[in-house]
Automatic annotation (TrEMBL):
Cellular component GO terms, alphabetical: membrane
Superkingdom: Bacteria
Organism: Nostoc sphaeroides CCNUC1
Positions of the O-antigen ligase-related domain: 196-339
Subcellular compartments: Membrane
Primary localisation category: membrane
UniProt name for this protein: O-antigen ligase family protein
Transmembrane segments: 12-29, 41-62, 74-90, 96-113, 125-147, 167-183, 190-206, 212-228, 235-254, 330-350
Pfam families for this protein: Wzy_C (PF04932)
Length: 407
């Protein structure tokens, strides 16, 4: 029974994680998800509270936090590039405001890494996502006008979130966390498996085809990583080569027959407008390929983003691709800095799994896979007030702390 008891600090952490993830206040405040300036103000106040809480808790253990802070330089160089982009930004005020949000989000990731082990962080996330899942179901029963119906589909669930794809992506992450904990934890595993099943059910109810496909891929990826990466090199390399070849062949087949495949699930090859959006974004990138338009400035009612809206004939909130948005905002400079840090940590995760077979190293690889998949059709890279970016920072820093402890 004691395993289920949590401290006051852990409760505060769970609340902060829920604010980053999405709370039931959003549908209640916005009366059907029509955002107003007052609603944004309340959301900003909530996020500001998380920054204050994170910095206050960091201050209490500043020695450990400063040590954690120093464990990865590339994420901080990337933050530095964001700051520098204010000098050439389309809207420097917007850039600076979003940088404050990004820094607060990243420092909360530092707090998580300095206070909790990686497994403790995932358990707190599991608590939070379990509560969120319960609220999504509760809202569907009590407030179906808020929880059901999204983007022209009257039967697609959106739960406590503003859009069905957000619900799908949130419980894709939830499924990855519950599956990982169920596979690496011995006690109370039935609860974790139940959480995994409920997460899959909510992804299914969201009718987000991308999230459902990624849910299956993440599950398969975990099993593949768990088995293959511990093989001898002479066996592992041919197996990985075969799987990579199979994956490329499958993708080529999918693209060649996209009309037929997507037509069976009510989709089309425009991927809900993304196939029209991405070429328009690339045209804008070509105008400023090296430094971009400034962090967070392009989509904030700029004249440049209005050109894209005129082209695609719908109000795109972002590029719906994390790589394109990163290039759009920070140019090749930011994209290269991110890619170097990402690849180094990815290769390091593979090495650590073979050298030190602990679960946190496996989670780093699984989370990197989730990050790549999520950013193919949505944007979570460098997103302020984002659960995904908070966990990205904490996962990298935590894995390096655990490595140090095992040396």
């Amino acid at each position: 029974m004691r395993k289920f008891l949590i401290s006051a600090e852990e409760i505060v952490t769970i609340i902060c994680l829920m604010i980053y993830s999405g709370t039931p206040l959003e549908p209640l405040m916005t009366n059907g998800f029509t955002l107003k300036e007052g609603d944004r103000l309340i959301a900003r106040l909530l996020f500001t509270c998380t920054y204050i809480v994170g910095l206050s808790l960091i201050t209490l253990r500043w020695k450990k936090a400063s040590y954690v802070f120093s464990k990865d330089k590339f994420i901080w160089i990337l933050l530095g590039v964001c700051i520098l982009s204010s000098f050439w930004s389309l809207d420097s005020d917007t850039t600076l405001r979003r940088i404050l949000g990004l820094a607060g989000t990243m420092f909360f990731g530092v707090y998580l890494a300095s206070r909790y082990t990686l497994k403790e962080q995932l358990k707190l996330c599991a608590y939070m996502l379990g509560i969120s899942a319960f609220m999504c179901i509760l809202f569907a029963v009590i407030f179906p006008q808020y929880a059901i119906g999204s983007a022209g589909d009257s039967t697609a669930w959106r739960g406590i979130y503003h859009q069905k794809n957000v619900l799908g992506m949130r419980f894709l992450l939830s499924g990855a966390i519950f599956f990982f904990l169920a596979m690496t934890t011995r006690k109370n595993r039935w609860i974790l498996w139940f959480g995994y099943v409920v997460s899959g059910l909510l992804v299914l109810l969201s009718k987000s085809t991308t999230s459902l496909g990624n849910f299956i891929i993440i599950t398969a990826a975990f099993l593949i990583y768990y088995r293959i990466l511990n093989l001898k090199y002479k066996v592992m390399i041919p197996v990985v080569t075969f799987l990579a070849t199979f994956g490329i062949a499958f993708y080529t087949l999918f693209v060649s027959h996209a009309d037929t495949i997507l037509g069976t699930v009510g989709k089309d090859t425009t991927l809900t407008g993304r196939a029209e959006l991405w070429p328009a974004v690339l045209q804008m990138i070509a105008k400023r390929p090296w430094l971009g338009y400034g962090y967070g400035a392009f989509w904030e009612n700029s004249s440049e983003s209005s050109l894209i809206v005129q082209t695609v004939q719908w109000k795109a909130p972002n590029a719906h691709n994390g790589f394109l948005d990163l290039w759009l905002e920070l140019g090749l400079l930011g994209l290269i800095v991110f890619a170097i840090g990402f690849v180094i940590n990815l290769l390091r995760a593979v090495y650590l799994i073979r050298w030190n077979q602990t679960s946190q190293n496996l989670w780093l690889l699984v989370y990197f896979t989730y990050t790549i998949l999520s950013n193919l059709t949505e944007t979570t890279f460098l997103e302020p007030n984002s659960l995904e970016w908070t966990l990205y920072v904490s996962a990298i820093l935590s894995s390096k702390l655990s490595t140090r402890a095992n040396l």
